[in-house]
Design a protein that fits this description.
This protein has 455 residues and is mainly alpha-helical. It contains 14 helices and 18 strands. Belongs to the DHHC palmitoyltransferase family.
Length: 455
Protein backbone atom coordinates (compact mmCIF):
# COMPACT_ATOMS: atom_id res chain seq x y z
CA UNK A 1 0.00 0.00 0.00
CA UNK A 2 2.82 2.38 0.89
CA UNK A 3 4.65 1.59 -2.36
CA UNK A 4 1.52 2.32 -4.35
CA UNK A 5 1.22 5.76 -2.72
CA UNK A 6 4.89 6.52 -3.49
CA UNK A 7 4.38 5.66 -7.15
CA UNK A 8 1.34 7.97 -7.33
CA UNK A 9 3.34 10.76 -5.68
CA UNK A 10 6.14 10.36 -8.24
CA UNK A 11 3.65 10.49 -11.11
CA UNK A 12 2.09 13.65 -9.69
CA UNK A 13 5.49 15.29 -9.28
CA UNK A 14 6.46 14.42 -12.84
CA UNK A 15 3.27 16.13 -14.04
CA UNK A 16 3.93 19.25 -11.95
CA UNK A 17 5.23 22.25 -14.00
CA UNK A 18 7.67 23.20 -11.23
CA UNK A 19 9.17 19.66 -11.26
CA UNK A 20 9.74 20.04 -15.04
CA UNK A 21 11.28 23.48 -14.63
CA UNK A 22 8.27 25.26 -16.11
CA UNK A 23 6.89 28.51 -14.68
CA UNK A 24 3.32 28.87 -13.47
CA UNK A 25 1.25 31.18 -11.28
CA UNK A 26 -2.25 31.53 -9.87
CA UNK A 27 -3.33 33.99 -12.58
CA UNK A 28 -2.84 31.21 -15.12
CA UNK A 29 -6.21 29.89 -13.97
CA UNK A 30 -7.76 33.01 -15.52
CA UNK A 31 -5.48 33.62 -18.49
CA UNK A 32 -2.71 31.24 -19.51
CA UNK A 33 -0.77 33.63 -21.75
CA UNK A 34 2.98 33.29 -22.22
CA UNK A 35 3.24 36.85 -23.57
CA UNK A 36 1.89 38.26 -20.29
CA UNK A 37 4.44 36.18 -18.36
CA UNK A 38 7.22 37.44 -20.58
CA UNK A 39 6.06 41.06 -20.30
CA UNK A 40 5.96 40.92 -16.48
CA UNK A 41 9.38 39.28 -16.35
CA UNK A 42 10.83 42.00 -18.56
CA UNK A 43 9.25 44.72 -16.41
CA UNK A 44 10.59 43.19 -13.19
CA UNK A 45 14.05 42.80 -14.71
CA UNK A 46 13.92 46.34 -16.16
CA UNK A 47 14.03 45.09 -19.72
CA UNK A 48 12.17 46.57 -22.68
CA UNK A 49 8.91 44.88 -23.66
CA UNK A 50 8.92 44.10 -27.36
CA UNK A 51 6.17 45.57 -29.53
CA UNK A 52 5.33 42.09 -30.83
CA UNK A 53 4.71 40.95 -27.25
CA UNK A 54 2.38 43.88 -26.59
CA UNK A 55 0.58 43.18 -29.85
CA UNK A 56 -0.01 39.56 -28.82
CA UNK A 57 -1.22 40.65 -25.37
CA UNK A 58 -3.63 43.15 -26.90
CA UNK A 59 -4.93 40.54 -29.33
CA UNK A 60 -5.41 38.04 -26.50
CA UNK A 61 -7.29 40.51 -24.31
CA UNK A 62 -9.43 41.61 -27.26
CA UNK A 63 -10.26 37.98 -28.00
CA UNK A 64 -11.28 37.32 -24.37
CA UNK A 65 -13.59 40.39 -24.22
CA UNK A 66 -16.87 38.60 -24.89
CA UNK A 67 -20.44 38.86 -23.65
CA UNK A 68 -22.41 35.63 -23.04
CA UNK A 69 -25.21 35.29 -25.55
CA UNK A 70 -27.92 32.70 -26.13
CA UNK A 71 -28.23 33.19 -29.88
CA UNK A 72 -26.61 29.87 -30.67
CA UNK A 73 -23.27 31.24 -31.86
CA UNK A 74 -21.67 31.50 -28.44
CA UNK A 75 -20.39 34.60 -26.67
CA UNK A 76 -20.29 37.85 -28.66
CA UNK A 77 -16.88 39.45 -29.02
CA UNK A 78 -16.71 43.10 -27.92
CA UNK A 79 -14.24 45.57 -29.38
CA UNK A 80 -11.58 46.58 -26.89
CA UNK A 81 -11.76 50.26 -27.86
CA UNK A 82 -15.48 50.17 -27.03
CA UNK A 83 -15.44 48.29 -23.74
CA UNK A 84 -12.53 50.21 -22.16
CA UNK A 85 -14.27 53.64 -21.98
CA UNK A 86 -17.45 52.01 -20.68
CA UNK A 87 -15.43 50.60 -17.77
CA UNK A 88 -12.92 53.42 -17.18
CA UNK A 89 -15.29 56.43 -16.99
CA UNK A 90 -17.67 55.09 -14.28
CA UNK A 91 -14.79 53.44 -12.40
CA UNK A 92 -12.77 56.66 -12.14
CA UNK A 93 -15.80 58.63 -10.99
CA UNK A 94 -16.63 55.99 -8.38
CA UNK A 95 -13.04 56.01 -7.11
CA UNK A 96 -13.23 59.78 -6.84
CA UNK A 97 -16.04 59.49 -4.29
CA UNK A 98 -13.60 58.19 -1.65
CA UNK A 99 -12.17 61.61 -0.85
CA UNK A 100 -10.85 64.90 -2.23
CA UNK A 101 -7.41 63.47 -3.03
CA UNK A 102 -8.96 60.60 -4.96
CA UNK A 103 -11.22 63.07 -6.78
CA UNK A 104 -8.25 65.08 -8.01
CA UNK A 105 -6.35 61.89 -8.82
CA UNK A 106 -9.25 60.43 -10.81
CA UNK A 107 -9.74 63.61 -12.84
CA UNK A 108 -6.02 63.70 -13.63
CA UNK A 109 -5.79 59.97 -14.36
CA UNK A 110 -8.64 59.91 -16.90
CA UNK A 111 -6.86 61.88 -19.67
CA UNK A 112 -3.66 59.91 -19.04
CA UNK A 113 -5.50 56.60 -19.36
CA UNK A 114 -7.15 57.92 -22.50
CA UNK A 115 -3.80 58.87 -24.01
CA UNK A 116 -2.06 55.62 -23.03
CA UNK A 117 -4.77 53.41 -24.48
CA UNK A 118 -4.95 55.44 -27.67
CA UNK A 119 -1.18 55.17 -28.13
CA UNK A 120 -1.35 51.41 -27.60
CA UNK A 121 -4.24 51.13 -30.05
CA UNK A 122 -2.52 53.12 -32.77
CA UNK A 123 0.69 51.16 -32.28
CA UNK A 124 -0.94 47.75 -32.52
CA UNK A 125 -3.61 48.43 -35.17
CA UNK A 126 -3.32 49.57 -38.74
CA UNK A 127 -6.89 50.89 -38.75
CA UNK A 128 -7.05 54.66 -38.39
CA UNK A 129 -10.68 54.79 -37.26
CA UNK A 130 -11.49 53.87 -33.68
CA UNK A 131 -14.67 54.04 -31.60
CA UNK A 132 -12.69 54.82 -28.46
CA UNK A 133 -13.28 58.58 -28.24
CA UNK A 134 -16.90 58.51 -29.40
CA UNK A 135 -17.66 55.74 -26.88
CA UNK A 136 -15.91 57.79 -24.19
CA UNK A 137 -18.08 60.81 -25.01
CA UNK A 138 -21.31 58.80 -25.13
CA UNK A 139 -20.48 57.03 -21.87
CA UNK A 140 -19.72 60.36 -20.18
CA UNK A 141 -23.03 61.90 -21.29
CA UNK A 142 -25.12 58.86 -20.34
CA UNK A 143 -23.42 58.30 -16.98
CA UNK A 144 -23.53 62.00 -16.04
CA UNK A 145 -27.24 62.19 -16.78
CA UNK A 146 -27.81 58.95 -14.87
CA UNK A 147 -26.13 60.43 -11.79
CA UNK A 148 -28.11 63.67 -12.16
CA UNK A 149 -31.44 61.88 -12.55
CA UNK A 150 -30.80 59.23 -9.89
CA UNK A 151 -28.93 61.10 -7.15
CA UNK A 152 -29.19 64.88 -7.67
CA UNK A 153 -32.92 65.03 -8.43
CA UNK A 154 -33.49 62.71 -5.45
CA UNK A 155 -32.55 65.56 -3.09
CA UNK A 156 -35.85 67.21 -4.15
CA UNK A 157 -34.30 70.68 -4.24
CA UNK A 158 -34.53 71.28 -8.01
CA UNK A 159 -37.64 73.06 -9.24
CA UNK A 160 -39.78 71.59 -11.99
CA UNK A 161 -39.05 74.36 -14.51
CA UNK A 162 -35.31 73.99 -13.85
CA UNK A 163 -35.44 70.28 -14.58
CA UNK A 164 -37.59 70.78 -17.70
CA UNK A 165 -35.21 73.44 -19.02
CA UNK A 166 -32.21 71.15 -18.54
CA UNK A 167 -33.99 68.13 -20.02
CA UNK A 168 -35.17 70.10 -23.07
CA UNK A 169 -31.65 71.39 -23.70
CA UNK A 170 -30.32 67.83 -23.43
CA UNK A 171 -32.85 66.57 -25.98
CA UNK A 172 -31.89 69.43 -28.30
CA UNK A 173 -28.23 68.46 -27.86
CA UNK A 174 -28.94 64.85 -28.83
CA UNK A 175 -30.89 66.00 -31.88
CA UNK A 176 -28.04 68.31 -32.86
CA UNK A 177 -25.59 65.43 -32.59
CA UNK A 178 -27.90 63.32 -34.75
CA UNK A 179 -27.86 66.00 -37.45
CA UNK A 180 -24.09 66.38 -37.15
CA UNK A 181 -23.57 62.65 -37.64
CA UNK A 182 -25.25 62.83 -41.04
CA UNK A 183 -23.39 63.11 -44.32
CA UNK A 184 -20.92 66.03 -44.04
CA UNK A 185 -20.67 66.33 -47.84
CA UNK A 186 -18.71 63.45 -49.34
CA UNK A 187 -17.04 63.77 -52.74
CA UNK A 188 -15.96 60.47 -54.20
CA UNK A 189 -15.35 58.76 -57.53
CA UNK A 190 -18.00 56.30 -58.69
CA UNK A 191 -19.66 54.76 -61.75
CA UNK A 192 -22.79 55.85 -63.58
CA UNK A 193 -24.46 52.46 -63.79
CA UNK A 194 -25.07 51.94 -60.11
CA UNK A 195 -28.61 51.60 -58.84
CA UNK A 196 -30.29 54.69 -57.38
CA UNK A 197 -33.01 54.81 -54.76
CA UNK A 198 -35.47 57.55 -53.87
CA UNK A 199 -34.00 57.95 -50.41
CA UNK A 200 -30.47 58.21 -51.76
CA UNK A 201 -31.64 60.74 -54.36
CA UNK A 202 -33.10 62.88 -51.59
CA UNK A 203 -29.80 62.72 -49.71
CA UNK A 204 -27.89 63.59 -52.88
CA UNK A 205 -30.08 66.64 -53.50
CA UNK A 206 -29.26 67.85 -50.01
CA UNK A 207 -25.53 67.25 -50.45
CA UNK A 208 -25.37 68.75 -53.94
CA UNK A 209 -26.19 72.27 -52.72
CA UNK A 210 -22.48 72.92 -52.32
CA UNK A 211 -21.77 71.81 -55.89
CA UNK A 212 -24.63 73.99 -57.14
CA UNK A 213 -22.96 76.97 -55.47
CA UNK A 214 -19.83 76.22 -57.47
CA UNK A 215 -21.84 76.20 -60.67
CA UNK A 216 -23.52 79.51 -59.88
CA UNK A 217 -20.51 81.38 -58.51
CA UNK A 218 -17.62 80.29 -60.68
CA UNK A 219 -17.78 79.71 -64.44
CA UNK A 220 -14.43 77.91 -64.35
CA UNK A 221 -16.06 74.89 -62.72
CA UNK A 222 -18.94 74.67 -65.20
CA UNK A 223 -16.70 72.83 -67.65
CA UNK A 224 -16.02 70.25 -64.97
CA UNK A 225 -19.53 69.77 -63.64
CA UNK A 226 -21.90 70.82 -66.44
CA UNK A 227 -20.53 70.40 -69.96
CA UNK A 228 -20.38 66.63 -70.18
CA UNK A 229 -16.74 66.30 -69.18
CA UNK A 230 -17.84 65.03 -65.82
CA UNK A 231 -21.41 64.77 -64.61
CA UNK A 232 -22.43 64.86 -60.97
CA UNK A 233 -24.66 62.01 -59.98
CA UNK A 234 -25.47 59.71 -57.12
CA UNK A 235 -23.50 56.67 -56.11
CA UNK A 236 -25.85 54.64 -53.94
CA UNK A 237 -23.72 53.66 -51.00
CA UNK A 238 -26.24 53.13 -48.25
CA UNK A 239 -28.10 55.41 -45.89
CA UNK A 240 -26.22 58.55 -44.89
CA UNK A 241 -23.31 57.44 -47.05
CA UNK A 242 -24.53 58.77 -50.37
CA UNK A 243 -21.69 60.50 -52.16
CA UNK A 244 -21.02 62.70 -55.12
CA UNK A 245 -19.44 60.88 -58.02
CA UNK A 246 -17.90 61.63 -61.37
CA UNK A 247 -19.07 59.42 -64.21
CA UNK A 248 -16.44 58.24 -66.60
CA UNK A 249 -16.29 59.92 -70.02
CA UNK A 250 -13.59 60.42 -72.66
CA UNK A 251 -12.94 64.04 -71.63
CA UNK A 252 -13.02 63.56 -67.87
CA UNK A 253 -10.24 65.19 -65.86
CA UNK A 254 -7.79 62.58 -64.60
CA UNK A 255 -4.56 62.42 -62.67
CA UNK A 256 -2.47 63.34 -65.70
CA UNK A 257 -4.62 66.26 -66.90
CA UNK A 258 -5.51 67.77 -63.50
CA UNK A 259 -3.80 71.16 -63.11
CA UNK A 260 -0.87 71.57 -60.73
CA UNK A 261 0.12 75.10 -59.70
CA UNK A 262 3.72 75.96 -58.77
CA UNK A 263 4.03 76.82 -55.10
CA UNK A 264 5.44 80.26 -55.96
CA UNK A 265 2.10 81.21 -57.53
CA UNK A 266 0.01 80.05 -54.57
CA UNK A 267 -0.45 83.31 -52.67
CA UNK A 268 -3.86 82.47 -51.18
CA UNK A 269 -4.99 80.20 -48.36
CA UNK A 270 -5.87 76.79 -49.79
CA UNK A 271 -6.95 73.55 -48.13
CA UNK A 272 -5.37 71.33 -50.79
CA UNK A 273 -1.88 69.89 -50.18
CA UNK A 274 1.39 71.12 -51.63
CA UNK A 275 3.70 68.33 -52.76
CA UNK A 276 6.81 68.56 -54.87
CA UNK A 277 6.60 72.39 -54.97
CA UNK A 278 3.14 72.21 -56.59
CA UNK A 279 -0.44 72.65 -55.38
CA UNK A 280 -2.08 69.26 -55.95
CA UNK A 281 -5.69 69.44 -57.14
CA UNK A 282 -6.08 65.73 -57.87
CA UNK A 283 -6.96 63.23 -55.12
CA UNK A 284 -5.39 59.86 -55.84
CA UNK A 285 -7.47 58.13 -53.16
CA UNK A 286 -10.87 59.27 -54.44
CA UNK A 287 -9.85 59.64 -58.13
CA UNK A 288 -11.34 63.10 -58.60
CA UNK A 289 -10.24 66.69 -59.02
CA UNK A 290 -10.72 68.45 -55.72
CA UNK A 291 -12.48 71.83 -55.86
CA UNK A 292 -11.15 74.61 -53.62
CA UNK A 293 -11.87 74.29 -49.88
CA UNK A 294 -12.08 70.49 -50.24
CA UNK A 295 -10.04 68.20 -48.00
CA UNK A 296 -9.39 64.47 -47.94
CA UNK A 297 -10.09 62.70 -44.65
CA UNK A 298 -7.94 59.62 -44.12
CA UNK A 299 -10.31 58.38 -41.40
CA UNK A 300 -13.49 58.63 -43.48
CA UNK A 301 -11.45 57.70 -46.58
CA UNK A 302 -13.20 60.34 -48.67
CA UNK A 303 -12.92 63.95 -49.80
CA UNK A 304 -15.16 66.35 -47.87
CA UNK A 305 -16.59 69.58 -49.24
CA UNK A 306 -15.44 72.58 -47.15
CA UNK A 307 -13.80 70.18 -44.71
CA UNK A 308 -13.04 71.64 -41.29
CA UNK A 309 -11.73 68.64 -39.34
CA UNK A 310 -12.55 65.09 -38.27
CA UNK A 311 -14.13 65.16 -34.81
CA UNK A 312 -13.09 62.02 -32.94
CA UNK A 313 -15.71 62.61 -30.21
CA UNK A 314 -18.55 61.93 -32.65
CA UNK A 315 -16.41 59.90 -35.09
CA UNK A 316 -17.47 62.02 -38.05
CA UNK A 317 -16.08 64.70 -40.32
CA UNK A 318 -17.24 68.30 -40.10
CA UNK A 319 -17.90 69.74 -43.55
CA UNK A 320 -20.25 71.76 -45.71
CA UNK A 321 -23.45 70.00 -44.63
CA UNK A 322 -23.05 69.67 -40.86
CA UNK A 323 -20.83 72.55 -39.69
CA UNK A 324 -23.75 74.64 -38.42
CA UNK A 325 -25.34 71.76 -36.52
CA UNK A 326 -21.90 70.99 -35.07
CA UNK A 327 -21.55 74.55 -33.75
CA UNK A 328 -25.07 74.47 -32.28
CA UNK A 329 -24.28 71.13 -30.61
CA UNK A 330 -21.17 72.63 -29.02
CA UNK A 331 -23.20 75.55 -27.62
CA UNK A 332 -25.87 73.19 -26.26
CA UNK A 333 -23.22 70.94 -24.71
CA UNK A 334 -21.67 73.90 -22.91
CA UNK A 335 -25.08 75.11 -21.71
CA UNK A 336 -26.06 71.65 -20.43
CA UNK A 337 -22.68 71.24 -18.72
CA UNK A 338 -22.75 74.64 -17.00
CA UNK A 339 -26.41 74.52 -16.03
CA UNK A 340 -26.33 70.89 -14.90
CA UNK A 341 -23.21 71.49 -12.80
CA UNK A 342 -24.79 74.61 -11.29
CA UNK A 343 -27.92 72.68 -10.33
CA UNK A 344 -25.81 69.90 -8.83
CA UNK A 345 -23.47 72.13 -6.80
CA UNK A 346 -26.28 74.30 -5.45
CA UNK A 347 -28.00 71.08 -4.39
CA UNK A 348 -25.15 69.28 -2.61
CA UNK A 349 -23.70 72.50 -1.16
CA UNK A 350 -25.50 75.09 0.92
CA UNK A 351 -26.25 77.88 -1.59
CA UNK A 352 -26.25 81.62 -1.10
CA UNK A 353 -28.44 83.95 -3.13
CA UNK A 354 -27.10 87.03 -4.91
CA UNK A 355 -29.14 89.85 -6.47
CA UNK A 356 -32.31 88.12 -5.27
CA UNK A 357 -32.23 85.42 -7.98
CA UNK A 358 -28.71 84.01 -8.54
CA UNK A 359 -27.84 80.97 -6.42
CA UNK A 360 -24.18 80.20 -5.77
CA UNK A 361 -22.73 77.25 -3.78
CA UNK A 362 -21.31 78.53 -0.51
CA UNK A 363 -20.85 75.86 2.16
CA UNK A 364 -19.39 72.62 0.74
CA UNK A 365 -17.95 71.05 3.90
CA UNK A 366 -19.99 67.84 3.87
CA UNK A 367 -19.41 66.59 0.33
CA UNK A 368 -18.01 63.17 1.26
CA UNK A 369 -20.29 62.30 4.17
CA UNK A 370 -22.42 59.94 2.07
CA UNK A 371 -22.27 58.30 -1.34
CA UNK A 372 -25.18 60.25 -2.81
CA UNK A 373 -23.51 63.60 -2.17
CA UNK A 374 -20.00 62.54 -3.14
CA UNK A 375 -20.90 60.95 -6.49
CA UNK A 376 -22.99 64.00 -7.39
CA UNK A 377 -20.08 66.33 -6.60
CA UNK A 378 -17.43 64.25 -8.42
CA UNK A 379 -19.62 63.95 -11.52
CA UNK A 380 -20.19 67.71 -11.49
CA UNK A 381 -16.41 68.27 -11.32
CA UNK A 382 -15.90 65.93 -14.28
CA UNK A 383 -18.59 67.77 -16.26
CA UNK A 384 -16.99 71.14 -15.44
CA UNK A 385 -13.61 69.96 -16.76
CA UNK A 386 -15.21 68.60 -19.95
CA UNK A 387 -17.24 71.77 -20.44
CA UNK A 388 -14.15 73.95 -20.01
CA UNK A 389 -12.35 72.03 -22.76
CA UNK A 390 -15.40 72.33 -25.02
CA UNK A 391 -15.53 76.07 -24.32
CA UNK A 392 -11.98 76.46 -25.62
CA UNK A 393 -12.94 74.53 -28.76
CA UNK A 394 -15.96 76.81 -29.22
CA UNK A 395 -13.77 79.92 -28.99
CA UNK A 396 -11.51 78.41 -31.65
CA UNK A 397 -14.48 77.76 -33.94
CA UNK A 398 -15.73 81.33 -33.45
CA UNK A 399 -12.31 82.67 -34.47
CA UNK A 400 -12.28 80.49 -37.59
CA UNK A 401 -15.83 81.34 -38.68
CA UNK A 402 -15.17 85.04 -38.12
CA UNK A 403 -12.39 84.76 -40.73
CA UNK A 404 -14.36 82.42 -43.02
CA UNK A 405 -11.62 79.82 -42.77
CA UNK A 406 -11.62 76.13 -41.86
CA UNK A 407 -9.25 74.24 -39.59
CA UNK A 408 -7.70 72.47 -42.57
CA UNK A 409 -7.14 75.74 -44.43
CA UNK A 410 -5.53 77.28 -41.35
CA UNK A 411 -3.32 74.21 -40.94
CA UNK A 412 -2.11 74.49 -44.54
CA UNK A 413 -1.57 78.23 -44.10
CA UNK A 414 0.49 77.59 -40.95
CA UNK A 415 2.68 75.11 -42.83
CA UNK A 416 3.23 77.75 -45.53
CA UNK A 417 4.03 80.51 -43.03
CA UNK A 418 0.89 82.53 -43.77
CA UNK A 419 -0.52 82.86 -40.23
CA UNK A 420 -0.11 85.06 -37.18
CA UNK A 421 0.19 83.12 -33.91
CA UNK A 422 -1.49 80.18 -35.63
CA UNK A 423 -4.91 81.86 -35.29
CA UNK A 424 -5.14 84.47 -38.04
CA UNK A 425 -4.40 83.73 -41.71
CA UNK A 426 -2.98 86.26 -44.15
CA UNK A 427 -4.15 86.39 -47.78
CA UNK A 428 -7.42 84.67 -46.95
CA UNK A 429 -9.39 85.36 -50.13
CA UNK A 430 -12.60 84.00 -48.55
CA UNK A 431 -12.61 86.58 -45.74
CA UNK A 432 -15.39 89.11 -46.41
CA UNK A 433 -15.46 90.77 -43.03
CA UNK A 434 -16.91 89.73 -39.69
CA UNK A 435 -20.57 90.50 -40.41
CA UNK A 436 -20.66 88.96 -43.91
CA UNK A 437 -18.73 85.89 -42.79
CA UNK A 438 -21.24 85.11 -40.04
CA UNK A 439 -24.21 85.95 -42.28
CA UNK A 440 -22.93 83.49 -44.88
CA UNK A 441 -22.31 80.79 -42.27
CA UNK A 442 -25.74 81.13 -40.64
CA UNK A 443 -28.12 81.94 -43.48
CA UNK A 444 -26.61 80.49 -46.66
CA UNK A 445 -26.88 76.82 -47.53
CA UNK A 446 -23.17 76.62 -48.36
CA UNK A 447 -20.00 78.62 -47.92
CA UNK A 448 -18.80 80.34 -51.08
CA UNK A 449 -15.49 80.00 -52.90
CA UNK A 450 -13.57 83.10 -53.93
CA UNK A 451 -13.19 83.76 -57.66
CA UNK A 452 -9.56 84.71 -57.00
CA UNK A 453 -8.61 81.02 -56.83
CA UNK A 454 -7.76 79.88 -60.39
CA UNK A 455 -8.51 76.17 -59.92
Amino acid sequence: MLGYQKNNLKQMLHQCPAWKGERSHLLACLCDCEDIDLAFDNCINCHRVQSSTMKNITATIADRCRIPWCGGNGAIQVRLDVIVPIIVVPSCILLGTIGPIMTVGALIAMPFLMFIFYRMWRRQHTKVRTKFFSTWANTSIIFSYFVFQTFVVAFRKILLWEFLLFFTALLALLYGLYLTKKNPGFLKFGHSDQEKTAEDSKTWQQNSKWVESLKNNDNKWKDVYLNGQSTIQLNANGENNSIFSQSESPNVVNENTAPMIPVEEVTWVDSRPIEGHHLITWCGFCNLQRPPRTGHCYVCNSCIAVRDHHCVWIDNCIGANNHRSFLVSMILFIFCGIYGSHLTLTTVCTPEIYYNWILWPNDCRFLYTDFQTSISFVTACYVIVSTSIMLLALVQQILFISQNITSQELHRATMNGMTCLGLYAYNNVHNKGLRKNWAEFIFKTSRSISLKIPV
